[in-house]
Specification:
mainly alpha, 434 residues, transmembrane, Na(+)/H(+) antiporter NhaA, Na+/H+ antiporter like fold, sodium transport, disordered N terminus, transport, transmembrane helix
Length: 434
Amino acid sequence: MSPRAHRFLFGRGSWPETRRIGDVLRAETVGGALLLGAALLALLWANSPWATAYQDLVALEIGPHRLHLHLTLAQWASDGLLAIFFFVAGLELKREFVAGDLRDPRRAIMPVAAAVGGMAAPALIYVAVNAVAAGGMLSGWAVPTATDIAFALAVLGVIATHLPAALRTFLLTLAVVDDLLAIVIIAVFYTSALHPLPLLAALVPLGLFAVLVQRRVRSWWLLLPLAAATWALVHASGIHATVAGVLLGFMVPVVRRADGPGPGLAEHFEHRWRPLSAGVAVPVFAFFAAGVSLSGAGGLGAALRDPVTIGVAAGLIVGKCVGVLGAAWLVRRVTRASLGDGVSWWDVLGLSLLAGIGFTVSLLIGELAFGADSAKDEHARIGILGGSLVAALLATVVLRIRNRHYRQVCAAEELDSDADGVPDVYQQDAVPPR
């Protein structure tokens, strides 16, 4: 890694990591487009003359009764498919901190601090709104704390295609850390009844899975049944089953053996499972979760007056921006580091607004906090949809203004005068003038 990266909070990372992040962003951008399409389809269907058919589909129950697996399609999407999403998030986070540029604490401090600040501020705003208002419900404090990776990156891919690599990496890492913190919140605060025996039993298939992957076993017919058993037992324990996805992801080794050909096992699994996560799991969940009726529960007017809706929307629009931007400023003051070449606080403001797009995990937490399909859950979903839309529009205004500058920066980074496949800027260690 270039020495210059240590003196810049948004300094240029290594070329291999930058190239890998670019591949991830392209996959997530496609997934975000599918996510948006699925959410719009659900919203239109739920408010059409055929809304009853949509509700019947959401409530359709399938699966065995053992281990509490006779679930509705909506529950299969939130408990089952999202476990794939969190498995990939676990792989990504472990890879970043073990083998990526963020293994250096001086590079990791910014996105981690921003993720923490971007969760604390929205929660405080939600609590402040609902603590003083009649009809408020404090149990939904965590709903506006999550940033949707696929949705945010899809918007970014459309409005700012020339964003410097360091800022794109920052947004991706912030969202991944955000997801990990969200799963901790779900496990700790939204587990109503814990059954110890299934939880202890889950350690057996999880341990066998860990032993096999540590030996670099890739056989799906061995690993998949163990992963499914771990998921089912965690689900039966009362802890949300998506926790199993993160645990399984953390078991996978990142660094390949010295004599082993090809990519490491974590990278191999990422390539295999990311398309399924971004292209199937998240869009299907969005289809079942975003179909809120705007005429139900007292109508749209009642929803917009509900402190739950106001708290969620304000948390996403204001809280995320204040939390992420404030944490970045605080890290800058404490470390006395520079922002990086060509990076300004307007860039950080744009990304902070973009972090207010909370969708997938926010919808999941809303269901856990208020109960699926309850009036408060529907109002929370309206707050999530409205807040995410406003945050995306505000981010678009800021980032489009900066897009010409991004194009100039990227043109300099992509110059490869010696045709060795690596842009020249990644082979220079000189520190630019302040």
